[in-house]
Amino acid sequence: MKIKSAVFTVLFCLFVIVSSPVFSQQQDYNPLALEHFKQSLKYMMIGDYYNAIISCNNVIRIDPNSAVAYAIRARAYFEMNDLDRSLADCNQAIKIDRNNAAAYNVRGNIYVKKGDYKRAISDWQAAIRINPDLEEARYNIELANKEQSK
């Protein structure tokens, strides 16, 4: 299970890097926030969720409207099994940016852990509508449907 979690974390980080407006508009973004943002991704990729959260906190202090930082922090909290904080960050990321597929994806993961398959599937479907290439969400929908039909 640890390997699966690590693979999903790496894929999540790659997804964030590719889809983030922060990386496509680096010259317009606060350099200190950008450095903390990059650090948070590095920490996520090595599984150092505690330091990823600290780096995201720094980004959010500088840019409270960074939906991506909230989504990354949500994933870190999720990996640490702090579902309530993770859910709060997902909701904040979605409030800031309704097209944040990563936040919907993590929130779906939270709901399935809480046993709410209907909401989980709904969030994963939203993530796929935003980003049709989000394989983790497709895979999770299949698993949730199988689990529900037992």
Question: How is this structure best summarized?
Answer:
This protein is 80% helix and 0% strand. The protein is mainly α and 150 residues long. The longest helix is centred in the first third of the chain and has 18 residues, at 2-19.
Which characteristics define this entry?
single chain; 150 residues; mainly alpha; Serine Threonine Protein Phosphatase 5, Tetratricopeptide repeat; 80% helix
Task: Please characterize this protein's 3D structure.
The chain is mostly helical and 150 residues long. The two termini are 22 Å apart. The protein has a single domain, classed as Serine Threonine Protein Phosphatase 5, Tetratricopeptide repeat (Alpha Horseshoe), CATH 1.25.40. The protein is 80% helix and 0% strand. The longest helix is centred in the N-terminal third of the chain and has 18 residues.
